[in-house]
Amino acid sequence: MTATTDVSERGPLALAIIDTLVHRIGKDERAARPHDWLEATILTLRNEIIERWMESTKAAHAAGAKRVYYLSLEFLIGRLLRDTLANLRHRDEVGDALRQLGVDLSAIEELEPDAALGNGGLGRLAACFMESLATLDLPAYGYGIRYVNGMFRQRIDDGWQVELPETWLAHGNPWEFERRESAYFVGFGGEVTGDEAGRVHWKPGEAVEAVAVDTPVVGWRGKRVNTLRLWTARSLDPFKLDAFNRGDFEGAMADQLRAESLVRVLYPNDSTAAGQELRLRQEYFFSSASIQDIVRRHIQYFGDIRTLPDRAAIQLNDTHPAVAVAELMRLLVDHHELDMDAAWAITRATFGYTNHTLLPEALESWPLPLFERLLPRHMQLVYAINAKLLREARAAEGIDDRAIAAISLIDEGGERRVRMANLAFAGAHSVNGVAALHTQLMKSTVFADLHRLYPDRINNKTNGITPRRWLQGCNPALTSLIAEAIGPDFTDDAQKLPALAPFAEDAGFRERFAAVKRANKVALAEHVRDTIGLRLDPDAIFDVQIKRIHEYKRQLLNLIETVALYDQIRSHPERDWTPRVKLFAGKAASSYVNAKLIIKLANDVARRINGDPSIGGLLKVAFLPNYNVSLAERMVPAADLSEQISTAGMEASGTGNMKFALNGALTIGTLDGANIEIRDQVGADNIVIFGMTAEEVAAKRAGGYAPRAVIENSAELAQAVNAIASGVFSPDDPNRYRDLMNGLYDHDWFMVAADFDAYAAAQREVDRRWGDRDGWQRSAIRNTANMGWFSSDRTIGEYAREIWGVL
Ligand code: 26V
């Protein structure tokens, strides 16, 4: 890219970008590469943000405002440039300035790496929440870890997933500010002693320094700029000069390496990752630094630690930061010399806890000896808290020994373990689920006994998504069309979207709505052709399942149904089949063997079906590599059908389901998580629901489920399962899927067989609806019109009023 336009036509913004390029990056415009333009643009934009950022902080300080602190080990932000420009209403101006310099803004936006500091839904939710907090003008900080390597990059080699390190910081990160002055000691291990005055002293055996790195978060219309504060680690004595001078270069670096290992990598959310020492170290590292920072700010502004709950609300994003409960207790008791009861009252009034999963393997607990070795003082405090908790429990009515054992912070069954969910529950005044069904299940299953003891604590906050990224940003054509129909007010308040509903009856509007979808499909088809060399028919149904690969999410159900459909088309080519494109994307945790095998199956099925000329292109299957936020932003606007087919009771909420429906896709889904509330909003006629309810799943499990009989009773299912098991899709290794398919016969934990016939019938219902073109478009429009409620602005409003007391 070189400047081609007349230099005299350059406006002040273009000149500012050139100035940044020369003085900050050290290049002239002829030498500048596209990445240099990206960096110069971000750095120039940052200058504008900084002033608003400082204003936001000053105003909150002056008002003595209560601040919200969102503690999360994951923030799946994706790219920032496009959304930041859009929120500042600055995109056209910056686009013009760059054009004067011969640079294409969209092209450099595509060069920005995704900040992939999260696994999936939980991390993306944290990112949507940060944007909504700024949009609602609430003073808030996100706290997390600045991982050097975020979520791995996925390559597909011969159909198999290969994990490559993700290097989002390779070109530096122009968004961030390192705050060397905001640094804290974080200790591990060592010993605890007491003095004559009864004070307790913890002398850690090792310590690292946590250093703050801040990223600005700009709300809609730039109203407010909040801070995402991610911690990086430094050794206290980064370079032991004496060792170096003796020639012991490795010894000199060892401490630094140990510190760096803390922030090196994001843990995958699979069961093998659970219980690893480095993970607990990460959890304590970022919780301790964050709590120290919050307490320091409170003392600096307000002087008295006892008013903390009036000025700070700390939300725990799952149990990953639950050790923060013990850390705040430690600071209150050991440093601020409060007694246990006073400290406990402050702690409970300050924390809220959000649960994001009921899967038993994801409920964190730490072997007691490990917890004690790493955090000896916190162990004592956990015992002390537990004593209080169990005293309260014993005094309550109807709590027997079994309930006491379930409530205890210590799991005594087998190897003793510290239960982080119980600690978070006990240490918070609010405990919330993320969709109505999930919250109900929290009360009746995992937290049943704690709920009986504290019946007012559990509450629901159904998840949401930011419409700035997930409608306006990713689907500008649909945004313009909606604005033409109902005016632009919906961009300030997504709950105005229902005004679009009457347009479902307007034939002209339906055509334009369909044309936008088709253009998005053409764009995605081009991307698919460029990345995996497959040609897609944009007039086929684009049927999309994109999410982490997990057995409970049942990509396997979709694949088996795909095989059954393929078989049907081959057997009955004369029937009036609906052309379909099955699109998959998602990452499997590297040690999750079945998940990786499911990716291989998707690719094997794709190769066979896409290469079979006898089905006349009626069915195509594609697995798109390296699913991330940016790929989702391409796929969501192009989907006709959204696959949300988890085993009922297992998906806490889902948020992908919301993104698709907002962009006019119909959902095929089970009555699980937020699907239920989506049905309530869009209307049962505009969604395709199938399968067992959570209650039916539980009853079937309890009653002894026999999948073999189910498979043998369904000709279509048996045919598909046997074809996969016998190697029809893996002639190079006919046994590749034998065990996976035998698992369906033997136990079928996720009830793929039990739901198969209902799912296949639901897919034929989708075909039928697609055949009624007007009916489909009506439904699509009603989906968009009725999804405003799922804006994360609504969700954050509820947290703010009902948990944090800040609205
Ligand atoms: C668990 C573990 C355990 C082992 C160590 C690493 C690790 C990392 C994350 C997790 C928890 C995963 C929980 C989660 O992502 N839940 C998802 O949260 C979404 C937002 O609320 C929700 O929409 C999804 O349904 C839910 O699966």
TrEMBL record:
Its cofactor is pyridoxal 5'-phosphate. It catalyses: [(1->4)-alpha-D-glucosyl](n) + phosphate = [(1->4)-alpha-D-glucosyl](n-1) + alpha-D-glucose 1-phosphate. It comes from the Bacteria. It holds the Pfam family Phosphorylase. The keyword Transferase applies. Gene3D superfamilies: Glycogen Phosphorylase B. The keyword Transferase applies. SUPFAM superfamilies: UDP-Glycosyltransferase/glycogen phosphorylase (SSF53756). Keywords: Carbohydrate metabolism, Glycosyltransferase, Pyridoxal phosphate, Transferase. It is an enzyme of class 2 (transferase). CDD domains: GT35_Glycogen_Phosphorylase (cd04300). Its EC number is 2.4.1.1. Belongs to the glycogen phosphorylase family. Phosphorylase is an important allosteric enzyme in carbohydrate metabolism. Enzymes from different sources differ in their regulatory mechanisms and in their natural substrates. However, all known phosphorylases share catalytic and structural properties. Allosteric enzyme that catalyzes the rate-limiting step in glycogen catabolism, the phosphorolytic cleavage of glycogen to produce glucose-1-phosphate, and plays a central role in maintaining cellular and organismal glucose homeostasis. This is Alpha-1,4 glucan phosphorylase. It comes from Sphingomonas citri.
